[in-house]
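A note from the maintainers: we've had questions about how concatenated examples are separated. There is no special marker in the raw files; a new sequence line simply starts the next protein. For clarity in this README we add a label.
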Amino acid sequence: MMELEVILDLNCCFCRQFMGVTVRCAGAGLNAGPAVRAAVKVPCPSCGNINKIVFAPDGTLHQVSPFDRPKVPEPSLN
């Protein structure tokens, strides 16, 4: 099985603080060609908000966006 470590440098979407992220990638998808993308959710060590990071196995950063946590419905007061 192919395995690699990807190091990404980016700024948090929320507080704009610098973050260094190391991701270990493994599996058959790494051999799928240059169009392969992976996504990971990473909490910011400064503000605690979660960033969604989309990247290629070669370390190219394609997108950093806020991760919207699923909204839990509140019970009705009726």
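[label: protein 2]
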Amino acid sequence: MSVYAAAAPPVSGPAEERHAFLKRTALWTFVGLVVAGVVGSVSMFTVAPAIFSTGRWGGTIVVLGTFFLAHFVCRKMVYAGAKVPGFVLAVLAEGVALGCLLLTTVGMAGVRGATEITVQALGLVAATAGGMLIYVWFSKGELKLVGAFLTMAFVPMLVLMGIGVFFPFGGTFGLVISAAFVLVSAAGLLYRLNYVVHALGTEQHVEGAYEITMGVLVLLWNIITLLSRLRR
């Protein structure tokens, strides 16, 4: 299976079952995001300082490792028999990585600045995800071209995201790269939402929650990075 699951024909069935599926998916997504936020906050004060103490390359390896675990290993678990363990492990891994980003943001902007950036990023992600959900709810497109592009761009993007925490891209080039990452991750979230709403079966709420949770966290990561650069 590719990083982005291939689009499937729209799922038919009773509307009540579909609505129940979406409610379960939303609940699991909410819990996953809350857990990732809590783990990220704890990681910022505990795990992240230890990771940074190993040096830039050591930290980069750890962050890239958590990305690989969450987006590749856990994906296979979620779409196989270990759905809940895979989802939980992915959320925990993303939380650890998020803690590293938050600590870096505090170092660049201070506690107050980092708090403002995080709140702004959360607001932007919520507004973006809400608008996308409305769009895909009324759209029947499969977004095949978007999926093909994301499959090619996803791995390089994750690698550059991880490296950028410890080896930031400077100047105008860094700003352009951050903006491009926001656009790519926004496209990824749109594709995931479309896939969940129109393609997944009504019993696949864990898979749906995994897709949306990972998409939201990647977009949040890139918006925080972009806002941090704009404050410099």
